Fold this protein.
Amino acid sequence: MNWLAELFTQPSTTQTLLVLAIIAATGLALGKIKVYGISLGITFVFFAGILAGHLGIEVNREMLAFAQNTGLIIFVYTLGLQVGPGFFSSFKKGGVKLNILGLSVVLAGFILTACISLAYGSPITEAIGLFAGAVTNTPMLGAAQQAALQIHPENPDVVTTMSLACAVGYPVGVIGMITVIIILRKISGNNTAQQKPATGVAKPFITEFQISNPAVFGKTIKEITSLTNAKFVISRVWRNGKVSIPTSDTVITEHDHLLVISSQSDIEKIKALFGEKENKDWNKEDIDWNAIDSMLISRRILVTKSHINGVRLGSLRLRNLYGINITRVNRAGIDLLASPNLRLQIGDRLTIVGESAAVDNVRKILGNEEKRLNEPNLIAIFIGLALGVILGSIPFGFPGMSVPVRLGIAGGPIIVGILMGAFGPRFHLTTYTTQSANLMLREFGLVTYLAGLGLDAGKDFFETVFCSEGLIWIALAFAMAVIPTLAVGILAQKFFKTDYARNVGMLCGSMANPMALNYASTTVDNDEPAVSYATAYPVAMFARVIIAQIVILLLS
């Protein structure tokens, strides 16, 4: 049985893969355990790695570095792909306020960290490692470690120290963020009143109007839409008891009834345009749209043909050519208004209303072949990874800095991922992956990175925690987690009139803290925390990855 003992104890490529796999499996299993409804989830892999390192397990250092870096690159790139489509739209409307508040949390945290480093006399690398744990942001740690190695390539121990500090600060960060949520809930009096969504995406809302405004009598739909800045789609027209699908050339007459899809915020503008709003609720889920008129059907059709990818919806002229109407577009589970300027992407689901033959013709144009979506678009993924690594390696010189700034293996791939997700379809580059495939790649990369990170930091973890320095680290990490978030949270609530649900969701997103988000979601009866989290998360994540490197390069 010597071969089995050697397999576990002798550092090699095989032994490294085996150890990381066991650490990952153990951490994922333990991560399912909940205490007071809270679990660390995938993050438990980090602590499983720490335990393995504490037990004295050693692996091939080069292989460990390769696994960590590869996992980090895959994670941040696929994360960028995921948030890319909504990244720039998050700056619109209410998302601007949430992103400004989220960035305030980020900047306040870095300022506090720099002050602590100066006051406590600790190296900025150590303080940033502790800060990365306090904000539960391992991609930020990876970026900071890469920057530290640029400055001190002869001292790889600085990376281990940063990992150790992060390991100490991580659980404290979770507890600190939950403490902030409890305090804000007490301050707000648990006021979780519903408000309009804060995201930049206008959720489609269906309303029936009766034409009574003489200003639109005898005008075509194309002419009417030019009279207002409200965005809407007319799905059906009732005239003399008959239902029809309108085109842009359809003339509207008095007493026509229109079924209009728009954002809820534009309803009053549309009412002023058409005249009267009917009281019937067309937004109920149990409406049988096919029963409204036996000649018309409503179908959801998938965009699967590559030449449609990135094409503006209006340029296809489907309404005028085929007599159908596209009422909404569902992308990654989110309903979008089917405006003419909306660029279609592979995987979009279009709700189409029209006669059966016409809908079938449109189905042939768009594809609707679900099996094609199950085929992975690996070319785009590998192109993106390559571009991300290249971008991360480009040196950017700044006046007064002796060492050029590089985005690194955390910054480069996430930027390329965001750009590919947002603009890839415009260049007819298919970046679509199913949600399950993206989640698989993302979590595989993160688990691999966390397993290696924990193993690297585990050797001295317990000795550090249970000493005077470790207790100081715990106190500092708690301050890093609580002070910026609580200050901005109170500011957002008192001066920016941000309600409790959005406020805590924004704070969790700015801290990249899904564990705290899970707790916050249990304190309200809606999904506003998750919506605000998704709005603030991409910008805050990007900012932390970049600012961490700049701070290391400036203050080291």
Residues 157-188 form the longest helix (32 residues).
